Amino acid sequence: MYLDEIIGDVKLESDKFESKAILNREDVIGWLKSIAGFANASGGDFYIGVEDKTNKLIGFDRKGADNERNYFNNQVNEHLTPRPQMKISFIGYKVNGKERFIIKIAIDESAAKPVILKYKNIPSIFIRRDGFTNGATYEEIIEMSVKSKKTQYDILVSDIKYESDKFLDLHRFYKEHNKGKVLKEKALQSLGFVNEEGYLLNGAVLFMDNYDGKKTEVQCSVFSGFNKGSDRVITINRFNGNITSTIDYIIEFVTMRMNHSMVKLDNTHINIDAFPLRALFEGVINAVAHRDYYLDGTQIQVDMFKDRLELSSPGGFYRGEKLGKTYDLSGIISKRRNELICGVLVACNVMEAAGTGFDKIVEEYASADEKHKPYIYSRSDHFTLVLPDLTYDRGIENDVVEGLNFVPVPEGTDLDEKVLNFCYLNAHKVSEIAEYLGVSDSTYFRKRVLGNLEKHGYLMKSKVSRAAYYKTNPDMVSV
Hints:
Elements: H1 3-6, E1 17-20, H2 28-40, E2 44-48, H3 62-79, E3 80-81, E4 86-95, E5 98-107, E6 116-119, E7 122-124, E8 126-129, E9 132-135, H4 138-147, E10 157-161, H5 168-176, H6 185-190, E11 199-201, H7 202-205, E12 218-223, E13 233-239, H8 243-257, E14 260-264, E15 269-273, H9 277-289, E16 300-304, E17 308-314, H10 339-347, H11 358-364, E18 375-378, E19 382-388, H12 416-422, E20 428-429, H13 430-437, H14 443-455, E21 459-464, E22 467-472
Parallel strand pairs: 1-2, 12-16
Antiparallel strand pairs: 2-5, 3-6, 4-5, 6-7, 8-9, 10-11, 12-13, 14-15, 16-17, 17-19, 18-19, 20-22, 21-22
Helix pairs in contact: 8-9, 9-11
Pfam family, one: SLFN_AlbA_2
Organism: Catonella massiliensis
InterPro entries: ArsR-like_HTH (IPR011991), RecG_C_sf (IPR038475), Schlafen_AlbA_2_dom (IPR007421), Schlafen_AlbA_2_dom_sf (IPR038461)
């Protein structure tokens, strides 16, 4: 039997048609690029169980078809970003009285382009043209990006059907933050949680009770001192779970490990938390709400140091300003990267309908001195909120700037980048630099590291009395 015998209107000669007898496990790219190519063009139909060129039906029994579909889904989820919009269906037929199935994948033109095929950490972009799938040209990639209809990950449709009993954790979270009120189905529908066919949007999937994928991964670490480079790591914990459990996990991790102190007054005392709970909560909500969920292989980073807490989220501010560093948190305007996720968090009463929630953080630190003021900085691939430890009297000790750009230092050392980071904002004495790095203030360190950086113009040296101070040269090193 042949395909046109069971599907009368199939267009076998169309450039929107392709078939495979079986998915090649040894050459995954060979067929994955076709899926990406259709999605990056104007869509197409991909059949499995149909011999290529002849269109003869090979088919599968019911179990074999189910296994082939699952393998297809797993490979697409792992290697294509964003996942193309498509409908998968089984088409049955009979041969000698026995039931057989082929698989039809109807791929829509992607709302978010380009769809990227990533295999063995090598990204590629393919497009379908004239009946063949080829690598996209530079001009085609630019055109795809310009014509992309939707760019937000969370508002694309998944292949998972909505089931109300799979969101008990979300209902619990809503009830906790809304004085016992119940989250109604209509509220989720009004947010666009589910499309008209009953499929969940990507953002909704991240709220499912059983979600434990990499999209929401968090790494929480505690360091004994002031930086990652030279201090002992006390603990590193990783967590995967839905969005609400991720928020709860980070809050619990920090509150169980942060310091507490007490200030005595005449007739009473005041208890002080290292990080005000309201400020901590706002920071965590902000990191989750504005995370770039397209970025695979990344995680929200929660780092506790002796003098501060750093909350880093993948992705810079969405269509916002690239910030080197600012204490003016109230002045930051960042558009929403994730409309659905933000909408759900607003409905749960844990996020403001407008703004970033930074005003509340500023209020919590309003009475703190200059060394205990929170700040934020953003790069193209992440943004970081820094909350000073209010129980540490000296404030933030190591006011460093991350993500410096500079040409590698001739005859350089492994310590160069750390030195340039530490000295970028403020000049420091040799002893301070050595202490920060966790190395001895030796002649070797002064000549081989600092001397070499000064020699090649990366550090500027000055003297105050008899002490030598070093500061990073902004003409050689930029943020």
